[in-house]
Specification:
- By secondary structure, this protein is an alpha+beta fold.
- It contains 6 helices and 8 strands, in the order ββααααααββββββ.
- Strands 1, 2, 3, 4, 5, 6, 7 and 8 form an 8-stranded antiparallel β-sheet that branches.
Length: 176
């Protein structure tokens, strides 16, 4: 993904499978044995790819199992709002640049937050910059308020480019 903003600045990042469990909040469902193994840094057998394969095959990690976790209410908004369509839709919206978490007492490390109003709240996709300067997807979340948006620097996305996994341009859109 590559975005150009109304001030001419740009942001590029890659969506990676290893980010998926965290984006939908699965790491918080510690009462599910498979998730406990995923969270255990000494257990290399359960990776993000393994979790995704169990979800796809509907084995050991089904929607019903996820929803029966006692911790599911902690992630329900995120889980229910996470979809390919919502992630792509965020590519056509606005972005918070230089997000200041102190304004709302947040622990987010995101430097950029793409956001979009949806029904009774906002979808957010947080992009942080690692110590080497590489952008990565930090989080996806839904919030019923505009608290993450208020008093932040907001720019419009003026150009979106989506590349396939080989780096070939798949889609490009320019907006006014």
């Amino acid at each position: 993904m590559r975005y150009e903003f109304s001030d001419g600045s740009e942001l590029s990042y890659k969506l990676k499978k290893r980010n998926f469990p965290h984006l939908i909040g699965l790491q918080k469902l510690i009462d599910i044995p498979l998730i406990s193994s995923f969270n255990d840094p000494t257990d290399p057998t359960v990776s993000a790819g393994f979790l995704i394969s169990r979800i796809r095959k509907q084995r050991f990690l089904t929607d019903a199992i996820i929803r029966t976790s006692i911790y599911f209410p902690l992630i329900q908004d995120r889980y229910d709002n996470f979809s390919r369509e919502n992630i792509l839709s965020l590519s056509y919206t606005d972005v918070i640049v230089n997000f200041n978490p102190c304004l709302i007492g947040s622990s987010l490390k995101s430097d950029y937050i793409l956001f979009e109003q949806r029904n009774v709240g906002y979808n957010h996709l947080g992009v942080a910059i690692d110590q080497v300067g590489n952008p990565y997807i930090e989080t996806f979340f839904f919030d019923q308020t505009d608290s993450y948006i208020k008093n932040q620097k907001i720019l419009h996305i003026t150009k979106t480019q989506i590349f396939d996994k080989n780096g070939t341009l798949y889609l490009e859109d320019t907006f006014c």
